[in-house]
Known about the structure:
By secondary structure, the chain is α+β, with helices and mostly antiparallel strands. The protein has four domains: 6-132, NusA, N-terminal domain (N Utilization Substance Protein A, Chain:P, domain 4), CATH 3.30.1480; 136-196, CATH 2.40.50.140; 202-277, K homology (KH) domain (GMP Synthetase, Chain A, domain 3, 2-Layer Sandwich); 287-352, K homology (KH) domain (GMP Synthetase, Chain A, domain 3). Helix content is 43%, strand content 23%. The strands form four sheets. A five-stranded mixed β-barrel has the order 4-5-6-8-7. Strands 1-2-3 form a three-stranded antiparallel sheet. Strands 9-10-11 form a three-stranded mixed sheet, sandwiched between helices. A hairpin with a 6-residue loop joins strand 1 and strand 2. Helix 4 (203-213) crosses helix 7 and helix 8 runs antiparallel to helix 10. The radius of gyration is 58 Å and the shape is elongated. The termini are far apart.
Amino acid sequence: MGPPGEAEEEEWQVSADLVQALKELEREKGISFETILRGLEEALASAYKSAMKIEEEENDEQPREDVRVTLDPESGDMRAFHLYLDEEGNVTEEKEVELTADFKGRIAAQTAKQVILQKLRDAEREITYEEFAGREGDVVTGIVQQHSAKATFLDLGKVEALLPFQEKVPAESYRQGERLKVYIIEVRKTGKGPQIIVSRTHPELLNALFAMEVPEIAEGMVEIKGVAREPGHRSKIAVTSNEPGVDPVGACVGAKGSRVRMVVNELRGEKIDVVEWSEDSSKFVGKALAPASVKDVKIDEETKTALVTVPDYQLSLAIGKEGQNARLAARLTGWRIDIKSESQVAEERAGPRPEPEPAPAPEPEPAAEPAAEPAPEPEPAPEPEEAADETEAKEEEEEEEEDAEPAASDGAEASTVDEEAEATKAE
């Protein structure tokens, strides 16, 4: 055979360049060469059917004719086959057809461009999905792109993340362009690419932030045993040490509170209590009520209840504002916590106070007294003559008394003179 003609040489050059471009895409974008080649063959077959006006049967019946196009993975040589099918869709006859120069040139180039672009988009979406699907439970940093009352969109670089309203801290507000650390809770696969759902309220966000700030946690020397969180207000975290001589609380707090302060700043001022976990439930419950001081803890295994005694002045601190401290401690420990002050416990031990005597029943009112008897009629006044006689008799008695008084005086004076005379004789 003689040397190929100019048209054949041009077609061969185009096919060779196409294969080289597909292999370059595989190296740069990580898209499988075989995947693009298979997609390109399907697209060329569809384009050939449109160009040759091969109609497909309607009403979901199997087509009687079809086309298959193959590309050589080394040289890029293109071949087409006309397929004849039976009623069940099986190939009964296959016949190679000659492709026109226009189809191999212009149509093939346009089809290849569309297919390659589509495959690139699909491949990038798949790669992004696989990348983030394995990162559920990780903390990522995003840039706020759009913020509304219902949702916030974050730019994670290759893809956008959605922060729903129910996963936002109620007291937080975000500005466009602000950097934000979020926790990946779900990666969904959609037709437009992966959809990444993130959260700012998940308890595991607190775990991940401490792991980022505390090397002892990342290395396994300190372990986080539990987290109880009320986003935006207060959180409690229980830690324990897997290495002797390592203080778990001190490692998490850091020098002068430097480590825990970084976490607090990231959570916009949310208060964090770091307590030491203990296998002894009574000790663990007592420490979980920090910052309050606890005097005594009694555990009831049957009812899963812990009776905690605190000093009187620590009662309000142990309960917390609106019961927040006690509620978080109960959630962290898994125990139902009943908090009482020392005076309350002392009163219960002293027994019930004697009940006051009942007040006497009021006496019944006395019955109404019978009506008083009528007063006796006054005696009639004496007659005037009788009254005059009585008056005269009284006057006579008074005169006799007056006459008797001077006589008595004379007798007294005479006796006095006789006594003086006898005294003179005696001298």
